[in-house]
Amino acid sequence: MAINLSVNLNKVALLRNSRGANNPSVVVAGQSCIDAGVQGLTLHWRADNRHTRIQDVYDLCKLAKERGVEFNLEGDQREELIALALEIRPTQFTLVPVTPGEITSDHGWDLPAQHDVVAPIMERINGAGIRSAMFMDADAVNMAAAARTGVQRVELYTEPYAQAFGGPDQEREFLRLQACCRQAATEGLGVNAGHDLDLRNTPILAREIPELLEVSIGHALIADSLYLGLREAVGRYLAACAGDEVAAPTTC
Questions:
Q1: Catalytic residue among 44, 51, 155, 214
Q2: How do residues 157-199 score in pLDDT, each as one tens digit?
Q3: What is 4-241's CATH superfamily?
Q4: Does the annotation count 219 as an active-site position?
């Protein structure tokens, strides 16, 4: 069974912002991804607006609903973001911890220590009929604590696995991720994953981890699209999400 692919379009917004105006367009990129067959679109709206802006969130949510695909809104616990999610009702809201000054997300929520931060937000999101998710390190022992927050899914942080891929620690990191997915399912949680996934390291996840429902991929897919074109890149990533070994355009 294939994993659903949700394309994170933050990098398109970042490129647009580097020159101003609206080229490249996040909406046009989203349309191309949908035309190529993706199951969802993702945006992470940060407080500093360094890539995604609030209008992008409105536009992509509208597009996803019109085209019948999922829209996943990611971000931290600030009230303006929670209020936006409750207003637009994305398919999924993924709560992600943010450290000021970080380049990209690099850790999950610290549970149970941050339970009182996360649980009230999960209650509000669930109460609005939005699928709730939260970003977590791939550590099986923390899945019970995640379930106690009321969250419906976890998105597992996959950079350690991705960084180890092709090296001596690959099996160890893969087994850790696999065990975490199994434990999450045992706790009644749906399982998503994301961060540094690409054409090389995604197929084995699709073949060997049946609990994995969705991956969110942005940086690698957009980078590959520079060589392949966006629709071709999306097609290859969809094949990877079905477990197929797919040629990557670079050897980086």
A1: 44
A2: 999 999 999 999 999 999 999 999 999 999 999 999 999 999 9
A3: Aldolase class I (3.20.20.70)
A4: no
